[in-house]
Amino acid sequence: MKKIQISPSILSADFGQLGKEIKRLEDAGADMIHVDVMDGHFVPNLTIGPPVIKALKDKSSMIFDVHLMISPVHKYIDAYSEAGADIITIHPEATSSLIDSINKIKKLKKKVGVSLNPETKIDVIKDLLDRIDLVLIMSVNPGFGGQKFMPEVLDKIKELKKIQESKNIDFDIEIDGGINFENSKIAINAGANILVSGTTIFKSNNGDIKKNIHLLKSH
Q1: What is 5-214's CATH superfamily?
Q2: Residue 31 in contact with residue 214, Cβ under 8 Å?
């Protein structure tokens, strides 16, 4: 079984001191930093762009797990790669050619992630799994933090796990959306090995980030 990793979403961090917040996450044992990039078009919210990511990356040695919720995504891949993204995750619906975008990310020597919204079927990526490093299963509709977890997406994780084992393909299964101490265990048992969490990590137990990361990992 793959090691369980926690990728805290800085969407829930204090945006007034993001550099310090990332340092806190690093000291607390986070495995990577999840950066949600939203364009107000593909999803109904706006967040941060390449200059902010570059400024943060210059101060941190952590893996930057960058989730691009922007459309059309293909032309922005270079900018986020240059800014310091280590994993670039895109949505199939946001590109005119998923394989071209995957190949572009590979060419830039970055890890490729593909994100599936709750209604997006696995069939979209089934034949491409040997080219993908990470599949991000959204357990909420993307766009805003603090939404309620959708347990029906767990079947998708179980199906991915079966494909992974039967075809002996190595990729990470990440889940994002409403992850807390209860459903994290169900997600891990279904086959997820990377958990994205924002509100739970930053707000639970009076903001004890180290304790919250530890609790999310234990199953």
Answers
A1: Aldolase class I (3.20.20.70)
A2: no
